[in-house]
Amino acid sequence: MYLKQLSVFVDNKPGALYAPCSALAEAGVNLSSIFLADTKDFGILRVITKDNEKALNVLRENNFAVKLTDVLAIEIEDVPGALSKILKTVESMGLDVLYMYAAVGTSGKPVMIFRFDDADNALEKLRDADCTIVSSEQFFA
């Protein structure tokens, strides 16, 4: 039920995003979701793609520090308060969110991508709370 996400470390300087994105484009890797988090010295480019193995190889061949991690995709309604509702559920369960960002699912509904400190525990608790966990197959359908 997890999605695989690539985290690519890039320098925090003008033009630094072009290199990994163009390498993936040249290899024919389609990016389904992309997010950039930055610090003063570097950025972490988070990418979800159907072609993880190919993307991982391309990035490593181009000397990028890259890591593959598990994330959970949770579909929410496209109405005011939907994010607050899921975050209240997450808080009430004592789950620790390391980060999150949004994507659009194939259903057209928003999908929140979450990285938890304990993904297995989060998956079990969120399933029990009837949250709509989006599988990899559903995400890329």
Count structural domains.
2
Low-pLDDT runs of 5+ residues are: none
Q: What is the count of β-strands? A: 7
Total of DSSP H or I helical runs spanning 4+ residues:
5
CATH first level of the largest domain: which class?
Alpha Beta
Biggest sheet statistics: 7 strands, antiparallel
CATH superfamily of the largest domain: ACT domain
Strand content: 35-45%
Mean pLDDT: 94
CATH architecture of the largest domain: 2-Layer Sandwich
What integer value in Å does the Rg equal? 16 Å
- Could you give the distance between the termini? 14 Å
By CATH, the topology of the largest domain is: Alpha-Beta Plaits
Percent helix: 25-40%
What form results from the Cα inertia axes?
A: globular
Structural class by sheet pairing and helices: alpha+beta
Helix and strand element order:
EHEEHEHEEHEH
SSE diagram, text form:
Elements: E1 3-11, H1 18-26, E2 33-38, E3 42-48, H2 52-61, E4 66-75, H3 82-92, E5 97-104, E6 110-116, H4 119-128, E7 132-134, H5 136-139
Antiparallel strand pairs: 1-3, 1-4, 2-3, 4-6, 4-7, 5-6
